[in-house]
Amino acid sequence: MTDWLEIAQGPIFRFALAIFVLGLARQVGLTVSGALTAIRRAKDRRLPYREIAKETLSWIFPIRALRRARPLQSVASFAFHIGVILAGLFLRNHIDIFQSNVGIAWIALPRPLLDCLTLLAIAGATILLLYRVYSLSVRTLSTAMDYILLVMILGLMISGYIAGQSWNPIPYNTLMLFHTWGGILLVILIPFTKIAHCVLFPLTRFCTEIAWHLTPEGGSEVIHTLYGSDGRKV
Question: 0.85 exceeded by the pTM?
Answer without folding.
Answer: no
